[in-house]
Amino acid sequence: EGRSCARLSLVQGSAMPMGSTKFYLDQWTEWPNRQMGLWVYPESAYVGNTSPETAFGIEIFDDVHRLWYLFSDQTERAWQDGQDAFRLLSAPLNQWSYQVIDIAADYDRFDWTPPPPKTIIEGYRSPTKPMINFRLFVATTSQQAGTFGGCFGSIIQHLP
Description:
- The chain is mostly beta strands.
- It has one helix and twelve strands.
- It is globular.
């Protein structure tokens, strides 16, 4: 389609040792008080029950909680495991789909409070803002040979 994207891929050989292999891009950013939309192109299916074995998605971390948005060609579902929560969002494999995430609503869903404000340095200013780590990732614990990952297109914060 000619869409610009960030492609994240893990290529695993057949003799890989047991363990976790992951690749990610992340950025600390201000707490989003609105929905976000993004284009995703997952190339490998989610594998796992309560703990991901192979996953492509977004991880939100606030120094206490981890919220995972996982994109795959499966039925949507959500679950919690201690301080981690997961949302599996239905996204067809090997094609672009537009997904909407609402981090604040999902914090409410899992009965979490938003992160406390942090003092950050912006040039000559030091404002205090609630912050999250926003991470695009692909990960696998599989010992099977293969390529895991996908593409992330534009990420848009929706206006109220």
